[in-house]
Design a protein that fits this description.
The chain has 15 helices and 16 strands. The protein has about 375 residues and is an alpha/beta fold. It binds zinc ion (ZN).
């Protein structure tokens, strides 16, 4: 199945860092890019108007969650995810694989698919590659993901089996796909084992997806191990296709992994930290509950241009947290998402200017000051 209306333009490369534009039916995505996660069709505690004001260019939604509630048929009946959640920009859905393997403690895998129990009511469900694609076609995101098997990163035998099954499932996903207004990305697996990662990258690259993702990282392995895997995989994945590192999203990760040739990131971190009263800044994390902020009239960050920092003081945010007011989560989410989106924009400028290496060194040294 051909995909219309999608193309990736590589604009600049500086070392291994890349700047580009991914054209989709719902708009252009400048890369590198960070995608905020809207698990249930909502980026937690921020409105779609606030996301637009933050200039978010891509958001992610989770197939597993939307399939269970409200149901992909219902979303399709109400016009698809863009209409249902009133977000007219690009959306990416995952395949459900990661949640099925991580949330469901009673899953059973066979060659054809996975049977699992709902975390909501314990009811029994089954995902196959074909079913995952059908659900993602009902949801209607611009980018959809191949159904993959996520193994615990250190078990070599299981990773080998899971990787080979992921390859067979990737081909089944390609055959199952019927919509030409969605781009299907393949996923490289292989745990922390260079020879498996290499074999997986070669196989997934050979299937000629419009973009390629790297899965099964940031799941408990060390940063050195993650970087070593990217150094194996990225040179094999085609230069003219997007590279998406799934579920990774600290500022340090973004800078280091863009430097290794990654274009797309997603992570729940900015909104999760906001719910835990933490602000992400270019010089590290701040716990906004801290008593030292009680009379602090400064914004979270004096150089930040987000709504929260332009409008509110540390003292006010701390007060909202103390009073258990919901607005604290919204204000911190806006600031945290801005921090990562802005970091991606600054990296893109630095790559285009041929100054990425210097930018990365300065940024990382400020972060750990
Ligand atoms: Zn801010």
């Amino acid at each position: 199945m051909k995909t219309k209306a999608f193309s990736f333009e590589l604009i600049a490369q500086d070392g291994d860092a890349r700047a580009g534009v991914f054209h989709t039916p719902h708009g252009d995505i400048p890369t590198p890019i960070f995608a905020p996660v809207g698990t249930q069709g909502t980026v937690k505690s921020v409105t779609q108007a606030q996301l637009a004001e933050l200039d978010a260019k891509l958001i992610l939604a989770n197939t597993y969650h939307l399939y269970l509630r409200p149901g992909d048929d219902l979303v399709a009946e109400l016009g698809g995810l863009h209409t249902f959640m009133a977000w007219n920009g690009p959306i990416l859905t995952d395949s459900g694989g990661f949640q099925v393997f991580s949330l469901s403690d009673t899953r059973q895998v066979d060659e054809d698919g996975v049977t699992f129990k709902s975390h909501i009511d314990g009811s029994s469900h089954r995902f196959t590659p074909e079913r995952s694609i059908a659900i993602q076609e009902n949801l209607g995101a611009d980018v959809i993901m191949a159904f993959d098997e996520c193994a615990e990163p250190y078990d070599r035998n299981y990773n080998h089996l899971a990787m080979e099954r992921t390859h067979r499932w990737a081909e089944r996903c390609q055959r199952a796909k019927t919509r030409d207004d969605q781009a299907l990305f393949g996923i490289v697996q292989g745990g922390v084992f260079p020879e498996l990662r290499e074999a997986s990258a070669v196989h997934i690259a050979s299937l000629d997806f419009p973009g390629n993702a790297i899965g099964g990282l940031s799941v408990g392995e060390t940063k050195d191990e993650m970087h070593a895997m990217l150094k194996v995989v990225n040179p094999i994945l085609p230069r003219d296709k997007l590279r998406y590192l799934m579920g990774v999203g600290t500022p340090q990760d973004l800078v280091e992994c863009v430097g290794l040739g990654i274009d797309i990131f997603d992570c729940v971190l900015p909104t999760r930290l906001a719910r835990h009263n933490a602000a992400m800044t270019d010089s590290g994390r701040m716990n906004m509950m801290n008593a030292q902020f009680a009379r602090d009239e400064r914004p979270i960050s004096e150089t930040c241009t987000c709504y929260t920092c332009q409008t509110h003081s540390r003292a006010y945010i701390r007060h909202l947290i103390q009073a258990r007011e919901m607005l604290s989560g919204t204000l911190l989410s806006i600031h945290n998402i801005h921090t990562l989106l802005n970091l991606a924009r600054k990296m893109r400028e630095a790559i285009i200017a041929g100054q990425f290496e210097g930018f990365a060194k300065r940024y990382l040294s400020d972060l750990f000051m």
